[in-house]
Amino acid sequence: MMIKHTLISILSLLTLLMANSCSETGKAKTSTITRKFFLNHEIPRNIDFEIYLNQKVLTKSRETDHMPGPYELNQKLVMGAVQKIRIKIMPAAGGAKVLNPKSIEFINRNLGIYLLENKDYDHIKTIKLLQYPVITKDTPEYDYEWTFNIKQP
Questions:
Q1: Model confidence at 14, in pLDDT bands (50, 70, 90)?
Q2: Tens digit of each residue's pLDDT (9 = 90 or more) over 100-130
Q3: Rounded percentage of the chain residues whose pLDDT exceeds 70
Q4: Are strands 142-148 and 56-61 parallel, antiparallel or unpaired?
Q5: Judging by DSSP bridges, how do beta strands 125-129 and 83-91 pair with one another?
Q6: Are 140 and 99 in contact (CB under 8 A)?
Q7: pTM to 2 decimals?
Q8: Cβ-count burial of 113 within 10 angstroms (0-12 exposed, 13-18 middle, 19+ buried)?
Q9: What are 40's strand-pairing partners?
Q10: Distance (Å, whole) CA 125 – CA 37
Q11: Number of other residues whose CB lies within 10 A of the CB of residue 69
Q12: In sequence order, what are the residues at sequence separation of 6 or more whose Cβ sits closer than 8 angstroms to the Cβ of residue 53?
């Protein structure tokens, strides 16, 4: 009697385990893609800036307290909408009083929006290169806005 009871318990347990195993095998496995959007820039320390994404402050610098990008954008993206990024630059206090064409050229070198998927640093995708329009004379500040789209995976 004891052996029969033990055998029934073992068979019940095996049946339960097999059913669970079969249901796990039958499930479709989905891979999760992690997507991180970044703004990259190399704004020199002698230039202060304010960066807005979809009219929300992403970061600001004053008096050379900033680090060059990249800045992650995901937290301020609006899914299903055109994204707007605005960057206002101006000379840092105590330095030059105006921005010159060479400064704008330097900033334009590496200014852009990029996508990193699944930490695959060898295949970072360019979403949009951002370029300030060329200026021909000095200006006290430069404020410009770009738009870009993001696609769902």
A1: very low
A2: 999 999 999 989 999 999 988 888 999 999 9
A3: 75
A4: unpaired
A5: unpaired
A6: yes
A7: 0.74
A8: buried
A9: 112
A10: 9
A11: 19
A12: 39, 73, 76, 77, 83, 84, 85, 86
DSSP the chain: -HHHHHHHHHHHHHHHHHHHHHHHHHSPP-PPPPEEEEEE----TTEEEEEEETTEEEEEE-TT------EE-GGG--TTS-EEEEEEEEEPTTS-SSB-HHHHHHHHTT-EEEEEETT-GGGPEEEEE--PPP-SS-BS-EEEEEEE-----
Q: Which two tokens stand for residue 36?
A: 């991180």
17, two tokens: 């385990």
* Higher-pLDDT residue of 5, 127: 127
Phi, psi of 21 (to 5 degrees): -65, -40
| Residue matched to tokens 């101006």 | 90
In the predicted structure, residue 6 carries a pLDDT above the cut 60: no
Q: Report d(CA 61, CA 65) in Å as an integer.
A: 6
Tokens of 119: 């930490």
